[in-house]
Automatic annotation (TrEMBL):
Gene: rnhB
Role played: Endonuclease that specifically degrades the RNA of RNA-DNA hybrids.
Protein name as it appears in the record: Ribonuclease HII
PANTHER family named in the record: RIBONUCLEASE H2 SUBUNIT A, RIBONUCLEASE HII
Domain of life from the UniProt record: Bacteria
Cofactor note text: Manganese or magnesium. Binds 1 divalent metal ion per monomer in the absence of substrate. May bind a second metal ion after substrate binding.
Length: 215
């Protein structure tokens, strides 16, 4: 089974998924930044429902991290998929995002580091290259509990990666903007050029505009 649903078809998702035992939520973060990887998380949650879980973009950093602790404690299995900027430049960001989701699904492990296989993947707006049954739903990161949990874990994981990158490349202030194209970020690129973790394919339009200004 592979089906894609609109945001107003949540009732179909609930009906189709009710008999599965190992339901896995999958989401990715980092499609928009001009630097750093795209990161996906897959998570199978336990029976305890955590209050306050929703799309990671609608949460403060402090709230995300508090919820992430509860998700880690209650999760049956978690997996991450990371695709770096070089692969993003090679295959484009959408394909890189799908690859990260597939990797996350394949990397599912329990707290004892044992591999765990999901029998249904609930995915935010996408379907991926896997034989596992899948339901993709638009706005799933805000509507489906398991996908929201994955969204939070992926966001915290990627943010922490960018904070670590900021120690290697302090001049770009990755800890502040997490690789997104802010005014200060572009200013740092003007001053220092691009780093090893910048997405060249995302910089073409910026350089074209900069060249027009110089000309």
């Amino acid at each position: 089974m592979k089906i894609k649903l609109k945001r107003d078809q949540l009732d179909i998702l609930l009906e189709k998924s009710k008999n599965y035992t190992n339901k896995c939520g999958i989401d990715e973060v980092g499609r928009g930044p001009i630097a750093g990887p795209v990161v996906s998380c897959a998570v199978i949650m336990g029976e305890n429902h955590i209050d306050g879980v929703k799309d990671s973009k609608k949460l403060s950093d402090k709230k995300r991290r508090l919820l992430a602790e509860d998700i880690f404690e209650n999760a049956i299995a978690i997996g991450y998929g990371i695709v770096d900027n070089h692969i993003i430049d090679e295959i484009n960001i959408r394909q890189a995002s799908l690859l990260a989701m597939k990797k996350a699904l394949e990397n599912l492990k329990d707290k004892n580091d044992n591999p765990v296989k999901a029998n249904l993947a609930l995915i935010d707006a996408e379907l991926i290259d896997s034989d596992i049954d899948q339901i993709g739903i638009i706005s799933g990161d805000d509507l489906v509990y398991e996908i929201s949990c994955a969204s939070i874990l992926a966001k915290v994981y990627r943010d922490d990666m960018m904070i670590e990158y900021s120690k290697v490349y302090p001049e770009y202030m990755f800890e502040a903007h997490k690789g997104y194209g802010t005014k200060k970020h572009y200013g740092a690129i003007d001053a220092h050029g691009i780093s090893e973790i910048h997405r060249i394919s995302f910089m073409k339009k910026y350089y074209e505009q900069a060249n027009r200004k110089i000309g």
